[in-house]
Fold each of these.
Amino acid sequence: MTQGQAKQGRKDQGLRQSMAWLHTWVGLLPGWVLYVIFVFGTAAFFQHEIDGWMRPELSSETRVSPRALAAADAVLKARAGGAESAFVSMPDPRGGSGLELSWRMKDEKRGGDGNRVILDPATGEEAQVRATKGGYFLYRFHFDLHYMPVMWARMLVSIAALAMLVAILSGVVTHKKIFTDFFMLRFGKGQRSWLDAHNASAVLVLPFYLMITYTGLATLLFTLMPWALAANFPDRQAFYKTTFAAAPEREASGRPAATIPLTGMIATAQQHWDGALPTYIGIDHPGDGNTTITLYPEQGGWGHPSHNTLYLDGPTGALLPSTQPVKGGAQATWRAMIDLHTAWFAGYGLRWLLALSGLGGVAMVATGLCLWCVKRRARLHDPARPHFGFRLVEGLNIGCILGAPLGIAAYFLANRLLPFDLADRAAWEINSLFIVWGGVLVWGFARAFACTAARAWVEMLALSAALFAAVPLLNALTTTRGLGQSLPAGDWIFAGFDLSMLALAGGFALAARKLALRKARPAPRQRARREATA
Amino acid sequence: MTHLFTALPCLLGFALLLSAMARHQQDWLKRKLPAHFSRLLRITGFALLAVAFIIAGLGLGWAYGAVAWCGWLSVGAALTLTAQTNRERILTLLRR
């Protein structure tokens, strides 16, 4: 029996050790990508609020007045006549996007920015809004990355997310005392403290990590596992046609006929959807006898199926027959997973909880990456001259862990600093993000290879504190919606954003101060030891 | 309001779970509590977490409430951990 126990013990040790090895390497190699996904994904929970802050010209009004709809009709009639298609995007209830009109002329490429007009939802006046990708870019970056083909990026992100799942499970096995150490966080004990911090940030928010990683993979389902589609449908289009609602495609007749006004389309939608509003309206061949109007519904509450897409005949406003979407169990499960990941249903209470959990993930990945170095520094042959791999990881750690937030701060600052009518303004905001991030990477490597990484951490933390504190300051200087005005006015998008930036600045400043003081302390002790041995 | 009444039992539940552990009893009270009392603390702690789930489910709907409950669980555990980490400071404050 005792022999059996010993054997069991050895086997257990073997499993745990192999899991520890797996956890170390599966965590480290995609770790920097995971960190970036967590940072940008967390920001994406406040995508529309960030949109609102980055478009200070838009008022905080999100309800569309009949006057604005009439103005939109006039713009479409005057400027989108003869267009292939036109689109009306209603303002998001959380803010950040006015009443947006766009259209595409014949032989024009999709996604062009030329034919786009933003109207004030209340007055209907054309708003002069600075060009920016806003919070949408931060959201897109967390799975599409940037400066590289989207499909490659998604594969990379998928691999990192799969590795994350493996790291979570192997981490649970490796973490021997997951329950007895549940409340343990001991500071000032070197490697022990890093391990505690890594364990605590992982265990306390574990359900969220499992959920967000798994559902994140589910959103990329057709990228990761296209085989079920390939086996059952000749191509993607055929799948979409059978699965989602569609109306018969109609050619333009060439016979001009007035399209019904937007108020008419919205009234029809409300009639069929128990008063729900459309979020997006597509108009094919506007002003033609064969115009087709597509009305996309608001999402229903969580657990309630959303309404069906409606198709109307342009000149008469009559409902066109359409195929209905397939609503099976698999479809519902998949939808629920995507809803859970995107959290569009979350009110501000839940949204903040999700964002805090996201920050927990940021902390978990960051402490894990740091732990790799801390653990190996103690075992270095010559601590003054670490091997290449060690310096590489240390440089990457500084460059990513602080580079990503510094880049985001630069993105917000660029939004206020770049001239209004700069060519490719939105692209230059994004470039600013990566220029600063690249700078931090270079600086991190320079310090890591000069063996002064500790100084780089303090410097970059201090710089992060300064840049994040500068964001609300610059906002107050360049707009009329600084904290002094937004707080008394109850302008929560601006007040919330500026206060969050100050909180981040405070966090970075605290970390910089702690680190600077800690680095200063061991010196006298070392000197004392040296004197004692001499 | 439901958020508050979900958060409080979560926080209290984790505080009881902490106090049910012998190691932390030693930390806070400088002595260990009897085993049956620790067990009672542990059962009450878990019961409070369950109560929080029911409150969240009834108040916010079961689907939405379950997500919110997970969030408050994390916050409750994190706050308990923060208290445990700053134990010396809290004890000094209490003694004064």
Amino acid sequence: MATALAQPGADPQPRSDEPLKSHRDHISRAEGWRRRGPLLPALIFMIVVTQIPFVFTLFYSTQSWNLVRPGSRSFVGLDNYFAVFTDGQFWRVTLNTIVLIVGTVLASVILGLIFALLLDRKFLGRGIVRTLLITPFLVTPVAAALLWKTSLLSPTNGLVNWALSPFGVHTDWLSQYPLMSVIAELVWQWTPFMMLLILAGLQSMPHDISEAARVDGATSFRLFRELTLPHLRRFIELGAVLGAIYLVNTFDAVYMMTSGGPGVSSANLPFYIYQRAFLGFDIGQAAAMGVVTVIGTIVVASLALRLIFKSFTGNEEAA
Amino acid sequence: MSTSTETRASSTTVDGVEITRRSNPRGVLLTVFTWILALGFFFPVLWMVLTAFKKESDAATNPPTFIFTPTLEQFKEVFDAGIGTPLMNSLFATIVSTILVLALGVPAAFALSLRPVRKTQDALFFFISTKMLPIVAAIIPLYVIVGRIGMLDNIWTLVILYTAMNLPIAVWMMRSFFLEVPSELLEAASIDGASLWTSVREVILPLISPGIAATALICVIFSWNEFFFAVNMTAVNAQTMPVFLTGFMSGQGLYWAQLSAASVLAALPVVICGWIAQNKLVRGLSFGAIK
């Protein structure tokens, strides 16, 4: 936008030198707006709906503002941030968020890789198997979380305890391993996505090279380690980054399965901030936490994005 | 030499190959193993569907009941529990936001692909950056703003939010489809004297309409399943299906069969859409990075 406004100022000089060029410049400017035009509605819409709230979040984070105490609102500078950083629960929740994202991404990538490798061969009913495997990803997350909570992990008549009863296991998963339970459910939901992505990677592999290597007597394992895995690397990286981006916002599973409990042992940042804002009515502090979360995410995401952009642009030119 | 290449290359002429594979004992084992894994992975969904057809007394047994007389009782209960409003709300928010996404997104993707403007990269990056940020940081001001203008518990609020939620993905995804339109085709059209609008309508749109359909399906899936905005911005009037589901939790999960029936009804439309679009799903979710 800024360049579009700056452009007319830069124009007059060539215009006085050469009339023909100025004519062409004029057209290209009009043409520029014509080209930019279709982009503007979407751009303006996104700026209004997504950026204005962030500005307000910044503003609210400097306010002492609790909805339960009307009229108590005042400017407190960075006090909310000090409160956030000295809040032990906040750090616990931040750690939970990291464990949840990393754990879910790692497990679902590994499982997704195994499924993708199994599906990358022709066999009876491959289409049906693939359809079965992607279904968990499609089930409404709230329904999936409720399904895990009530049907699978229930201590009284859950399927998991029933299946493990021959081994003498009887556990109340949600209260004893709340974060692990949420991660297990998320892995179940996210494995199909990783599988589809890695499968796309496998199917884009040039097969003449692996044929040649096989003729040269390479073992399947060496083939996998030295040809398949390097080729899949960028797909796995992309899957990990995208999975992490979606999982930062995980709310349904925590809300439905454990409500962050017991205590805050399974709360992640979205849930904790939600709790502060909508149950504790502490707008100022919740906003400060939101800002801290955003800054943390920007740092991690820009590093991660650099990784995938490098990986993609680099490899595409090579191929 | 090329059995495996052939298997990949086409799925119609693989019968012969399949037979040779089937006679290979290791291949048979691997196939059986894959099937067992897939069925295990799918089992929770199957269990949900089975439970939806049970009586409550069959649903909460220990050990679980596998043999039972199916009943539609639970679905009837769910309809009596007032599924009508949330169902209509979900349909409305999903369909209208998807139409809005396409109306805003198709021109934007067009501007960012075939006739790139200055700062294309910046614009693209801006779109995607909005997907990188945690929504929680925006929910508080959104709640305050929406409350001030009297739009809480109004389905249009969700329509706007869902449009903003899906637009970046849609722009990235459709841009990658636009980029696949061969430039020779466009040049040929312009040499033939076709105006821009004509070539868009007659050449480009027919070519990318499968891509637009896939994008729309992805928007449908996300809008239909969305919970965070819905639970915070709606109460009774604008309640959507995922929020409606949480209502069944009140009896400490006592009505398991009923909850399952409601879950099946909530999940079914998206599961069907997803099955149809499974090939395009990855591309949509990877923001068009994978061709």
Amino acid sequence: MSVLDAVVDYDDAIARYDPVMGLEVHVELNTETKMFCGCATGFGAEPNSQVCPVCLGLPGALPVVNAAAVKSAIRIGLALNCSIAPWCRFARKNYFYPDMTKNFQTSQYDEPIAFDGYLDVEIPTANGDGTEIFRVEIERAHMEEDSGKSLHVGGSTGRIQGAEYSLVDYNRAGVPLIEIVTRPVRGAGERAPEVAKAYVAALRDLLKALGVSDVRMEQGSVRCDANVSLMPRGEDELGTRTETKNVNSLRSIERAIRYEISRHAAVLDSGAAIQQETRHWHEDTGVTTSGRPKSDADDYRYFPEPDLVPVAPSSEYVEQLRGTLPEPPDQRRKRLQKDWGYTDLEMRDVLNAGATELIEQTVADGASPAAARKWWTGEISRRANAEGRAIDDSGVTPAHIAELSGLVASGRLNDAMARQVLDGVLAGEGTPTQVADARGLALAQDDGALEAAVDKVIAANEAVAAKVREGKLNAAGALIGGVMKEMRGQADAARARELILARLT
Amino acid sequence: MSSPSSPSSPHDIVRRGAAELGAAIADGSLSSVEVTQAHLDRIAEVDDAVHAFLHVDAEGALAAARAADEARAAGESRSPLAGVPIAVKDIVATKGLPTTAGSRILQGWIPPYDATITTRLRAAGLPILGKTNMDEFAMGSSTEHSAYGPTHNPWDLDRIPGGSGGGSSAAVAAFEAPLAIGTDTGGSIRQPAAVTGTVGTKPTYGGVSRYGLIALASSLDQAGPCTRSVLDAALLHEIIGGHDEMDSTSIDAPVPGVVEAARRGDVSGLRIGVVDEISGEGFQSGVRARFEESLKLLEARGAEIVHVACPSFVKGLAAYYLILPSEASSNLAKFDAMRYGLRVGPQGVDSPSAEQVMAATRDAGFGEEVKRRIILGTYALSAGYYDAYYGQAQKVRTLIARDFAAAFEQADVLVTPTAPTTAFKLGEKLEDPMAMYLNDVATIPANLAGVPGMSIPNGLAEDGLPSGFQILAPATRDDRLYEVGAALEAALLEQWGAPILDQAPALPVREVTR
Ligand SMILES: [Zn+2]
């Protein structure tokens, strides 16, 4: 067990220190084949079923660059407003790592394919009533290969220490990655963790729109390393940084950075120095623990990869790829907000929930923008959060929601019934209509029963009825509740209100 | 021919060249099985003394020979060398056949895949006799650094056969194989050819696929033919050369007309440039004398001899001994005892860590020369030293390429003696790495610049041992090597009246019953 580090209150930390962040995001590309060989890249295949002499690093095997990965890298670079190198090389990063077949990683070092860009991210204004743009500068985006995966068997911790033996799966070895590295992000102040989260969310949306990655953070196809350092307020010299590795959800990025800021502040307050090291994030306990110290041993002995010819995309090719870029996410957001008639606040909820595409599809399937928003950012988002699932992995489709909201709009279901129908859909009982039919959920459609219930409730609640007669229309709510109860929920609340007001006013 | 035997006796068969054997197999006067068996017998007779082979695959070779004979019977003609057996340097991956690169660390490793060269040899119908000895991971100039013991020079069994491909050249010189594959990182095809009296070609970098060659220094390594004649080399070059999409550095262009050039052998009007920097001082007097005579023979055949300056060549050796270890240190990192090859547990440790196993294995599995170069390369690439060493060496490389470019403005080919001396005695330079490294001084510039080179035997020096004549051509103009090589070879043959190898002493022959 790790000893928990001391932390200071976040607001206190921010009052005395300026946080500076550096974010390194690894994106697994969704190319059909690996970075340097023809092996498939599918997720979840039988261990070591997608390997060959090249990605196993067998003696004599040679890499050949995957042109589709280069294409994706260039498109990502362009979408991040980067310059694209007319000529660049791969380099060897030499270090020992049990999951790495060659004991060097083929990566890009001083010659990245894309460099000097930026990504504008939208964050709430300080007073929370709107949004503002924070520009995150991109230093570089470079290509590299993923390593394999170890499984340590027999121990209690799943770590190599204490394990009886280790298994290595090289299916992922050689899968193409793009590493996107920011320049130091400064000036975000107390909102640094929020900016980091918004940046990764914006990056994720962008990558999704580009179609270059599956961007499934929970499967590790997007992984974030977060560097954090603190500068005492009023000073301008960067502090010693720590690097928290492989943080793999938006929420964790925010929490991990927040934690590190508090921890750094505690260390600095005590007069001690921050150790430059890697840290591990623990989702369950919400803390980071010390990993490997950065040291002279981190001499990777980079040199240009002699087995690969340089990558030299022509300017015509780059311009041709520029033409394939999707509408920039911020423009698209503005267009959709206008089309859908959402307020800034509503749009922000949509973005935070990561529901833009889902809503777009739901509207295309026939729902009103208002209903689509309400369902995705409300009920479904809540349930997905509670189950720790991604919203687009919740088991309901835009078509389901469009159908469900159609049933509400037509007056067949009220909201409470619709939620019950959603339960059924999630339980795999079928489409919303099928669930409603099977469960016998439908509002009473003839006014006769409703009118009888209204009369009964008014008679039983003379005092309330009197208030309504006096013009206190809000009081009608209690009567509507009574009617609903009388009808055992099978009533259209709006119609009940109409009838009550017609009787009393 | 000086053969005392009947026309088709095994003795006669092994002394015939590959082109001739290919023609005999094609016209049915010999079968591939007969030819292959004759060479297997010869290996059984003399290889105890020569030790050219690390592994002989009699069964596989005969099966391939039968397949070649069947293909011929069915009217298929797969190549002019179909059915002619070949020996392959043990650095080339051969599916199902042990491949060790002369190292203990790969003892018993059987690759699950074929190198592109191997694939092409098989497709062309050449039976693979076995794998030839070499300096460990091709580091050395004498084949004394093989973990499996040295190869002996067929001209004098107390002498080195050159390195690192001494096994391939010795196999060809000892008539154990009509053809062999070598690899040349700093001269490992040409230098052994020179000291064994055979022909060795290093094609243009990228001219023959590196896929499946266990890498020594990726930016320098080049595979090529080891043969007894220029035409045989050209025929083999044509089979193994050409674009390979598995090797990103492979040249995407057809192989130049090397066979045609070898058949033509015409140097009239050709300008032949003598590189004075690597032809004079430090070269054995007999080697220099043979070189001068060869120039005269070429001149007599209509070539124009010019002298060119290549001032940066003298720095080549130093640059080479930084670039090679640097790349090698990275290429050899994969040998970590985890996935294949040797695994040694550390002494006196109960449950050793992965690092301890790795260290013990590397200590036991790598030889002294390999360790020396790994340490050198690791140092040269390390932060703070990169610019001073690797970076400077790369600059020298650029200067050498410029020297070549300027020289090829003045001459169609460049020539030098291949090696400064004839074969030295086994053990003579083992304790002096620098003296050993100097053997490659004339061959290294071609690797640094990626240009093609060839060594052909041009006579015997004052000590009665063969010397080599090196020809260098501009990148992708491998055909010029064959043009000049064939012309000189013809002139020399005319003078000698018989191949130079006929002057080699007979090897002790072990009685073999099969
Ligand atoms: Zn593969």
Amino acid sequence: MSKLVKLKKGFDIKLVGKAEKKIEAFQPAQTFAIKPTDFVGMQRPKVIVKEGDTVKAGTPILFDKKLESVLYAAPFSGEVVEIKRGEKRKLLEIKIMADKEISYEEFDKFSETDLKSLTKEQATAALLKGGVWPQIIQRPYGIVANPEDDPKAIFISGFDSHPLAPDYGVLLKGQEKYFQAGLNILKKLTSGKVHLNLDQDSEVSPVYAGAQGVEVNKFSGPHPAGNVGVQIHHISPINKGELAWTVNPYGVVQMGKLFIDGVYDASKVVAITGSEAKKAVYTKTYQGACVDKWVVDNTKSDHVRVVSGNVLTGEKINHDGYLGYYDHQITLLPEGDYFEFMGWAKPTSTKLSFHRALGLLSFLSPNKEFALDTNARGEARAFVQTGVFEQVTPMDIFPVYLIKAIMAEDFDEMEELGIYEIIEEDLALCEFVDVSKHPVQDIVRKGIELIQYS
Amino acid sequence: MKFLRDLLDKQKPLFQKGGKFENLYYLYEAGETFMFSPNHTTGIKGTQVKDAIDLKRMMITVVVALLPCLLFGIYNVGEQHYLAVGEAVGFGEKFLLGLKLVLPIVIVAYAAGGIAEAVFAVIRKHPINEGFLVTGMLIPLVVPASMPLWQVALATIFAVVIAKEVFGGTGMNILNVAMTARAFLYFAYPAQISGDQVWTYLGEKTAVDGFSGATALSIAYSAGQSGESVTSALASHNSAIGDQLYSFANMFFGFIPGSIGETSALMCLIGALILIATGVGSWKIIVSGFAGTYIMGLIMNIFAANEFMAMPAHYHLVMGGVAFGIVFMATDPVSAAQTERGKWLYGLLIGFLTVIIRVTNPAYPEGIMLAVLLMNVFAPLIDYYVVKANKKRRLQRATV
């Protein structure tokens, strides 16, 4: 049964710098990188290539010794120029100097009738070999799925409700055929249903309009309505011992391309967003692209933070850093490393707040777009304010109690309070609105790891 | 403000690790962050921008919500004084007298508590707790103007140390800090905070004939003992000094003897509006607190074993410290129930208990103090059951 879920709780962070709906060409990136750190829960990454090797798009680069069957592929063809390690030889980046022309590894192509008769085992093998398996994320824990599992269902969130999020209609324009092929493959991987969850409040993008063989559910409400974790909670919550998989629509398309065209196609459209972007537009590139070309000459000041992803769950990267594996957006923000005289008492209408405490006037202009900087706006304290986390978490979960259970490393409490249902992004808004400035997402990941490895 | 920033930057190394005053770092930090919001930026991973609120702003909102009570309290101290000694003076003089009496109490509370905070911050090496901004204002408002300053100081230090700092500071305490200070005074120095003689400042002067100085609650209580109807007892006090001193309107507006900030239900309501509009105080606790008081008042009316019990239920809302206690004490986010459902029950029970203690406790007609403290202790239990219900839902779902 398809569902319509109306969510009231949550908060839309309206920011200046939404990407204009046009695709603009920047200078192509010269280097690409795979960052093992993008894959949450990857424990012992092992590099297959050496510096100086040449690779094609789709050549395996890396795998996790804990899950050896899953291969991570090169997004672009070229020469492996650097394998960068950090402290304790932690693997950080594998950089590829791009060829002028992209060349692809060749994989098996399937016709439509082939696709129909494909078994789960064949599909899995092809996905693994073709390097697209990491697009499948397992819940609980939010880690790359284990191909040997049988998930109770697969969930696809068809929209992104994060601040300044890109429009999937632009990202996936013209990919209907591949999207449907991807869905057909996914259906083989689960004994349950494949759920496609769409935004009730906006037009259905053409790429989803003809989607067949899947359960379509609609969601309406403020962020985090687009979070797949919130959607799962309302469609078919995850209990202890259950497994569900989630895939981003981009991943579905990538799977479709692998089966229909027989290539590992890592091309993607990325939104360049944020108040510091001179040109906030979409651009075509590939997974793991170096962001320098979009940042240089495209920022309004010198003191800019580049974030791969959105402002709630993204990661700060260098100005010549690399786009995160799962990201379709970079955000350019003003750095906020300044002191502000009486900043805690001064009335302000330029800073966004979910609260309305004295002098916080942003609630007076609910539709205004704000240009926020990265100032932390206060110091860390113990939990004081109550009830606010619940207002931004549209799930039957008590976030404060869950966070406290994690801090106390109380495993039973964590389980009973719903640790299996969330990953960092689901409580990211709590981190934003928190008066006491707790690192909520870090705490959530710590809790997940405690449960996962216990 | 650059010179100030430069000055702070110049002093900073002295207080940082290896500096001369390394131990006093948190004192420096308190001053610095008071004047300048820090230049900290968000971390590498996670939320890259933050909501504009911080704890300091939240706490100062409560202080602002308390200002109507404070200002009216200052005026009323003067008003009651001149009423008692039978002199007719202007607004300015009443206010000035009130200021002369109340300001030292406020200063002493802030100073004594501030020192206790600072000592703990230095020894325990934690930042100075902003919660004290509120506590330091609440304590003066729940004592009579005649309270000796040393007792104010002692009670404040007791409350800050025993009710808060030993638990780890703001956010970790179990009991409402200001209510603990008042309870301390009540049990340690009952002569200065109960009876009929402490609520009105007389100074060197003598009171006019017929002056009793009693609070509305104690009149109601003795009426209950003697079998006179409470409303007529209040009315007969009216005639003794001033016109209609204990009329319902006077009790609502607050022109009656009592603790400095507690007498005016109207000012408490203005404070409540500020707290609710800003979302700093829980409207659920405020609404259910008043509702609980009124409902239990009605229940008492049904039994009406004595005249106090028969008193019209709405009188409970304007007498004594109920309004102040519900609006500013019960809503303390740390010691109150923390779940949204729990808040309803928590407020309701505070209202119930307040009235029960009022009409049945022979020693002390004011019930809100004990009701809030008692419910502070039970709040985690209420939350426990609310959270347990959530866990149960989750478990039941698993078997389906």
